[in-house]
Amino acid sequence: MGSYLLLSLPTSIVKSGDKDDAFAAINSHKSSSETTLLPFNVPDFKIGTLDTLVIQADELAKLDTAAEAAVIKAGDILKSIFDGNETRVSENKQVNEKSFQSYLQSFAWNKVKYRADRPIPDIVNVLKTEIHSLDDDIKAKYSSYQSVKTNLQTLQRRQQGNLSTRSLASVLKSSHFLTSEYLTTALLAVPKPSEKEFLATYETISPMIVPRSVFKISEDPEFALFGIVVFKKHAAELSHKARELRYVPRDVTYSADANVQEQAETKSAEEQAEKLWGETLHLARTGYSELSAAWVHVKTLRVFVESVLRYGLPLDFVAACWVGRGKAVAKVKESLETQYAHLGGNAYGRDKKGRIVRKDDASVAELAAGTLGGGSEYTPFVEYLFEVV
């Protein structure tokens, strides 16, 4: 799992106002070899009106959350279809045939899919449609696969287990069943330790059992399957009494083709499950790549929109991304927030020991709602901390 701190700061943090110098100033907060600062290229988008930017800041915050959830879901599906094999999962969680970090390191705005010369609301709508569509398609395909897989497992369980639960199609013959207007054959699965007692007492389990009619059909290490002839009108009572004695009635309607049909059904389910497994893998792998790329584009737009709202015009900011282990990146974040707390204006102050602290009051909440989208925490500069598993 990698931690990422995507941020932008005005170039005024250095006297020269130069982007390279500003990047170097940010990089000076490196806490250890466990963190790396990557440059992050943000295109110049059409700014539009301030009202539009405020609306889009909120839309992008929501879309960011939705995109992250979709990426996580695609990753979870890959983990599920590979039964938790982390090596196989890692091999398939690629973004444009690269690791997420490598993709981010070489990130360039996709001008073909998301035309940067279009108004920001148009780009957001394209991204929103793509993310929701991919997410829905992946979930639907996975749901179909899970349904077929569950059906296959049910069919396979019917072929396995002991004689008290498994399908009896492979052991039953037409000769096991009595065809009569008044009589019927009842099937009972008897635990092996109770077999002798059953044979000695079966005629007394319920009324109207035909004497000396018991016969063994099959057995396994746990149960023996017996047939008993009983009058039809007392068959239900026999089943009830047998359960009280811990014998398992098997209510089976005999069919000569049952075994063939079950085998054919199981084979068909196996083929369908294998086909859907491949389709789900392809869609989840492709979806993970495209959703991750779309997610980075959403974050790029957020950096731009919120940098304009924070720092104003003319545009003069530097964007970068810290990459590393969680605690190391968190330490860099804390260092940067302390160094540039003055950018937060009245939202930040000092405690009794002189340490920089964020104020938690209504005015700060209004700042967050107006510049970062509803529900976000106000920070002294534009920054997004996120993780990718």
TrEMBL record:
<protein>
    <recommendedName>
        <fullName>V-type proton ATPase subunit C</fullName>
    </recommendedName>
</protein>
<keyword id="KW-0375">Hydrogen ion transport</keyword>
<keyword id="KW-0406">Ion transport</keyword>
<dbReference type="InterPro" id="IPR004907">
    <property type="entry name" value="ATPase_V1-cplx_csu"/>
</dbReference>
<dbReference type="GO" id="GO:0046961">
    <property type="term" value="F:proton-transporting ATPase activity, rotational mechanism"/>
</dbReference>
<keyword id="KW-0813">Transport</keyword>
<comment type="function">
    <text>Subunit of the V1 complex of vacuolar(H+)-ATPase (V-ATPase), a multisubunit enzyme composed of a peripheral complex (V1) that hydrolyzes ATP and a membrane integral complex (V0) that translocates protons. V-ATPase is responsible for acidifying and maintaining the pH of intracellular compartments and in some cell types, is targeted to the plasma membrane, where it is responsible for acidifying the extracellular environment. Subunit C is necessary for the assembly of the catalytic sector of the enzyme and is likely to have a specific function in its catalytic activity.</text>
</comment>
<comment type="similarity">
    <text>Belongs to the V-ATPase C subunit family.</text>
</comment>
<dbReference type="InterPro" id="IPR036132">
    <property type="entry name" value="Vac_ATP_synth_c_sf"/>
</dbReference>
<dbReference type="GO" id="GO:0000221">
    <property type="term" value="C:vacuolar proton-transporting V-type ATPase, V1 domain"/>
</dbReference>
<dbReference type="Pfam" id="PF03223">
    <property type="entry name" value="V-ATPase_C"/>
</dbReference>
<comment type="subunit">
    <text>V-ATPase is a heteromultimeric enzyme composed of a peripheral catalytic V1 complex (components A to H) attached to an integral membrane V0 proton pore complex.</text>
</comment>
